[in-house]
Amino acid sequence: LRGPGGREDPHTQPLLAYLLTCCIYPLASSCAHTFSTMSTRARHLCYFFDYAALSMYSLGSFHLCYVPVAVFNTIVSTSLSCYSRFLEVERPRLSKAARTLAFVYPYLFDSIPLFYRFYLCAVESCSEAAILLHYKHTIFAFLTCFIFASHLPERLAPGHFDYIGHSHQVFHVCGILGTHFQMEAITTDMAQQHQQLLHTSLHPSSLQTLGSMGICLAINLAIIRLCSTSLRLVPEP
Questions:
Q1: How many CB atoms lie within 10 A of CB 86?
Q2: End-to-end CA distance of the chain
Q3: Where does Zn(2+) bind (predicted)?
Q4: Which residue from 80, 78, 72, 63 is spatially nearest to 14, judged by alpha carbons?
Q5: What is the helix (H) or strand (E) element at residue 60, kind and residue range?
Q6: Is 5 part of any domain?
Q7: Residue with more model confidence, 200 or 141
């Protein structure tokens, strides 16, 4: 992986960690949808991994105390989303709310610096090329959440969107488009602010980037293991 400053650029490590999560979460989601029909247990287990991959994707910023908090949010996200599957049959509304909160909460935390940047840009009337891409990414992120929570359009016409146009399909398309614009915005920012980043005294270390991802991966796998052994407690639909 080459950054604006070449192979030795320390800022390529966070980019590498981010790109890894961008690859992992669509792959995990595809596998979940492919193999979830094998059995009830397989369905839950597949989506445990899907939720873990999504929570890893939320681990996208690396800076001092921000990293431990982001790691903690990732663990909470995986735990809450996996636990929501145990509520699906008896308390479906609470299950849906818990699963939505599991991903909205870490996203909002991770986006605090970006929202602050939007505010400064509005005040100062900035013209940065990456800002428009960040706006597009944010719009698609909120659209993804809205579609997931609202079940539109099949809610308005039940039975007409069972194969094409279902909210879950639109949800995935919006999510991937949001990731695309986010990736474009990040690479644009890195190219435009490279000289400024080189002169800062704070450089991301391997422990802050790939090390943090490794910690999250290990804990997420432990959570999945715990939830998979507790599947016998889930009532059959």
A1: 18
A2: 47
A3: 33, 168, 172
A4: 63
A5: none
A6: no
A7: 141
Segment 191-195 long-range contacts (CB within 8 Å, at least 24 positions apart):
191/4, 192/128, 192/129, 192/130, 194/3, 194/4, 194/5, 194/11
Residue type, 114: L
Q: Has residue 37 been placed in a domain?
A: yes
Residue the block writes with tokens 């490590």: 13
CB 54 within 8 A of CB 77: yes
pTM over 0.90: no
CA distance 71 to 68: 5
Report, as an integer, the average pLDDT of 180-190: 91
Output the known binding site for Zn(2+): 33, 168, 172
140 part of a folded domain: yes
39 domain-assigned: yes
Scan for tokens 């644009």, then name that residue: 188
Q: Which structural domain range is residue 209 located in? A: 11-192+202-233
Give CA–CA dist 176/184, Å, rounded: 12
Counted domains in the chain: 1
Tokens 């479906």 label which residue? 92
- From the annotation, which residues make up the binding site? 33, 168, 172
- Tally the residues of the chain: 237
